[in-house]
Amino acid sequence: MKVGLFIPCYINQLYPQVGIATLELLEKLGVDVYYPKNQTCCGQPLGNSGYEEDSKGACRLFVENFKSYDYIVGPSGSCIYHVKKHFDILEQTQDVINVRNNAYELCEFIVKILGRTDLGASFPHKVGLHKSCHGLRGLKLGSCSEVMGDHYSTEEDLLNNVKGLELMSLNRKDECCGFGGTFSVFEEAISTKMGKDRINDHIDSNVEVITGADHSCLMHLEGLINRNKQPLKVMHIAEILNSQTQV
């Protein structure tokens, strides 16, 4: 299979180590990875702010960059969700349909397409998993706590197979962190309070490292942690799954 690696703009600019870890992880799993150099933003910030018409240029460019790949894989649940669900604003050509159907968040791709859960990683730390809203409720990467039925979680399946890692149980396992993209700008006070609540849950649960599949949420939490000088480290799940050594 030919896989197009999609690295969201904020990861490219602020967290390049996440993009590198994603690439290295996929290569370790034997995937033939390509990085379209002309890729830009998927258009999510404009779409989320109500400017869908203005986002069409970015959406069309995304399709043009990734239309020739069997799968599109990215380390961001929210961006992948945008591609899959909000590219309906474009004319539904076969290229657009294929890109929407073949776009996968990293953990989902590893578990559902590659059929792997044990990646040979080692990370001897107490870890708290932040389940981002787009991944959990949009991409269905896991079951929601308010829904009756069997519990499942793509991210937990992977983390539970990391040697030495202790996945800590949180009091509110799938509560929103308050980031919400531009919501954190327009509703700063509410966003901050929600983020602090999530961080305190991790601290109360003796977590050392917060992880997740969406670094936009992790960026929000990390900013609050650093400002308040709290004893927590934040890492994208790709970094942990690609890890062989201690932090």
UniProtKB/TrEMBL annotation:
<dbReference type="InterPro" id="IPR004017">
    <property type="entry name" value="Cys_rich_dom"/>
</dbReference>
<protein>
    <submittedName>
        <fullName>(Fe-S)-binding protein</fullName>
    </submittedName>
</protein>
<feature type="domain" description="Cysteine-rich">
    <location>
        <begin position="3"/>
        <end position="83"/>
    </location>
</feature>
<dbReference type="Pfam" id="PF02754">
    <property type="entry name" value="CCG"/>
</dbReference>
<feature type="domain" description="Cysteine-rich">
    <location>
        <begin position="128"/>
        <end position="221"/>
    </location>
</feature>
